[in-house]
Amino acid sequence: MSRIGRAPITIPAGVTVTVGEDNLVKVKGPKGELSRKIHQDMKINVEGTELTVTRPSDDKMHRSLHGLSRSLIHNMVVGVTDGFKKELEINGVGYRAQMQGKNLNLSLGFSHPVIVEAPQGIQFEVPKGTNNIVVSGIDKEVVGQIAAEIRAYREPEPYKGKGIKYVGEHIRRKEGKAGAKGKK
Q: Which residues lie across from 126 on neighbouring strands?
């Protein structure tokens, strides 16, 4: 049995989970509503305040879908109650981020500013006095994708560390040209 797949999901107060036909799972909570279609072979049972996911057999495909299905539903429940956020850090001279309405305006050393539009359900935040960007929302997949797209505009380079990185991410640094320091 999958350790992740067999763990039950506790449904907190204020959250409703409904399973429709074709395994369409809808989760509604204080922060919003999410829905996702789970593979039709997985059996989803809602009993009181617990949700369990079971698989029909021990086939390789069913084993791999078991933990995945449970994790996707759990992320939906956590998203509508607490939400998700990713923090990015900007390093570099002249690199900065500003809010422009709901959109994000990035100055990253290009000849033009990069404007990132916030998709529905995603909020950007730029705390005052820091070079950080906070991407938050209720869908974990979308939050991670938007954060990755922002990071891709100027990935951190290994020599000076300039660019956009996740907070807490370690960038492996390289040494410059060692022999060129004393020669002309």
A: none
CA 67/CA 74 separation, integer angstroms: 10
Number of separate helices (H) and strands (E) present in the chain: 3, 13
Q: Which residues make Cβ contacts (< 8 Å) with residue 110, sequence separation at least 6?
A: none
What homologous superfamily is domain 84-166 in, according to CATH?
Ribosomal protein L6 (3.90.930.12)
The pLDDT value given to residue 36: 95
Over the stretch 41-70, which tens digit does the pLDDT of each residue have?
999 999 989 999 999 999 999 999 999 999
pTM: 0.88
Distance separating alpha carbons of residues 161 and 174, to the nearest angstrom: 10
The CATH homologous superfamily for domain 3-81 is Ribosomal protein L6 (3.90.930.12)
